[in-house]
Write a structure and sequence with these properties.
By secondary structure, this protein is α+β, with helices and mostly antiparallel strands. It has helices at residues 12-26, 31-49, 67-103, 108-112, 115-134, 151-178, 181-198, 230-240, 275-285, 298-312, 320-338, 363-377, 382-398, 403-423, 427-452, and strands at 140-141, 144-145, 202-203, 215-218, 223-228, 243-246, 253-254, 259-264, 286-289, 344-348, 355-358. The protein has a 6-stranded mixed β-sheet with strand order 3-10-11-6-8-4.
């Protein structure tokens, strides 16, 4: 396949494992708090061993009360912090519920991955662990009461308490801002743009159809195709002199037992390759999970913003301006897509002895899915249609020289006008849409003239 990217890196298995662990840890609420609890135990143990000599400059930092005072203090800190933890978890659940019902259930993972929330929860868990563990040692030695105790460690518990109180205020402020639609859409835009900019080299060609003699390799798992690394499969493809082509694109659903990939040699007269090595190779090179992620899938960000738009346009919500805000952020994503090569991700051998192909979406497909859903839900609202046309006009101005992309932009503009004529009662509102469509056509025509010149 001309224009394919040549890549072959034997370190990919370890990188893929680290990638999977990092993605799981980033979306889990328990990983960081668990690490914080372990760190608190280690810090408490270290501080308990530190002895401050009389007259030392650090002596004023030591807790000055008795052992009983220290135990009461630690018990009070532990009780207070566990109450705050319950409050934080309760507020988090409320935010998750609001996000799911008001915006989109696909936004829940964004809240779970929100780093400030996880850091604040980890701080509370660390404070509770530090204080609760201190009750086992403060004022107790070999099972007997004693007046000697680690005063510096108790002072550390007081510091953690004040830091936790400050974190409560920070958490409340962050939570109030994070559930605003501007913050939600900006977060999705930022994550989708990161995927777009880090996408591997792609080729502007259609994915080839497998020949009749191609060998079908079934999937061993059901779920969403999260990641695909053709680089890892390339040595295997070169060794057997075959082309490996995945059936599904990243972000699409696969079912166990159905075809995950095809393997074929250049000619039907060539012997059929052994499927077993390719089964094992696909299991390690292709990540399949129960949900879509942002690892390689920019379309999930587009889907989240489209869902938010459609939800805002539903009779239950009836909030067209939220849909317009989501379209504004979609505009940024699509303008980034418009200037990049989009298509299959291909890894090939320089000598032409093998290739691995991961199918990808073309610009027109991205545009059709996004515009189609919002256009059908918002056909009666000129404000929404004008926002879509602004998106198309911006893409037409920036799009790479490709007649197919410009044609796709014009097609979507024409569909928007057809729906507006059918659904909008006022001729004045239709005239605005018609003028915006004409502006899109004018921009596309100007680009075609420049590209032809």
């Amino acid at each position: 396949m001309p224009g394919a990217v040549v890549r072959d890196d034997r370190r990919w298995p370890d990188m893929i494992r680290r990638e999977t662990i990092r993605e799981y840890a980033g979306g889990s609420l328990w990983v960081l708090p668990l690490l914080a609890a372990v760190a608190a135990l280690i810090a408490g143990s270290v501080l308990s061993q530190v002895e401050i000599a009389p007259g030392s400059p650090l002596e004023p930092l030591l807790f000055q009360g008795t052992a009983d005072d220290a135990r009461n203090l630690l018990a009070g800190i532990a009780g207070t912090v566990i109450t705050v933890i319950a409050l934080v978890l309760g507020l988090t659940v409320v935010a998750l519920q609001l996000s799911s019902t008001q915006f989109s259930p696909r936004l829940l993972r964004n809240f779970l991955r929100d780093r400030p929330n996880r850091i604040v929860l980890s701080l509370f868990v660390a404070t509770f662990t530090f204080a609760a563990a201190g009750l086992y040692t403060v004022g107790i030695s070999s099972g007997e009461r004693t007046d000697e105790y680690p005063r510096l460690a108790v002072s550390g518990a007081i510091v953690l308490l004040f830091v936790s109180l400050a974190a409560v205020v920070v958490f409340a402020d962050h939570l109030a801002h994070s559930i605003q639609i501007d913050a939600i859409t900006r977060t999705v835009e930022r994550r989708a743009l990161a995927v777009v900019k880090s996408a591997p080299g792609q080729v502007e060609e259609e994915t080839p159809d497998p020949p009749e003699w191609a060998l079908a390799i079934p999937s061993t798992r059901s779920g969403y195709l999260r990641t695909a690394h053709p680089e890892q499969l390339l040595p295997l493809a070169v060794e057997h002199g075959v082309t490996v082509c995945l059936r599904r694109r990243v972000g699409e659903h696969v079912v166990a037992g159905t075809t995950l990939a095809w393997v074929w040699r250049p000619s039907a007269a060539d012997p059929v390759p052994d499927p077993e090595p390719f089964r094992h190779g696909l299991e390690s090179a292709v990540g399949i999970g129960f949900e879509r992620t942002f690892e390689q899938d920019a379309a999930i960000g587009i889907r989240q913003l489209v869902d938010l738009s459609c939800k805002a346009l539903s009779p239950a919500i009836n909030d067209p301006y939220s849909a317009v805000q989501a379209i504004d952020h979609l505009t940024v994503i699509f303008c980034a897509l418009a200037v990049r090569p989009l298509g299959a991700d291909v890894a090939t051998d320089p000598a032409g002895h093998g290739a691995v192909i991961v199918p990808g979406r073309r610009f027109g497909e991205y545009l059709s899915i996004m515009c189609g859903l919002i256009r059908r839900y918002g056909a009666r609202e000129p404000t929404v249609l004008l926002a879509l046309l602004r998106l198309l006009a911006n893409c037409a101005e920036l799009v790479r020289p490709d007649p197919a992309r410009l044609t796709a932009i014009e097609q979507q503009a024409d569909l928007i006008l057809q729906d507006a004529v059918r659904e909008i009662a006022q001729p004045y509102d239709v005239a605005e849409v018609r003028a915006a469509v004409a502006a899109v056509h004018e921009t596309v025509g100007a680009r075609l003239v420049v590209d032809a010149g």
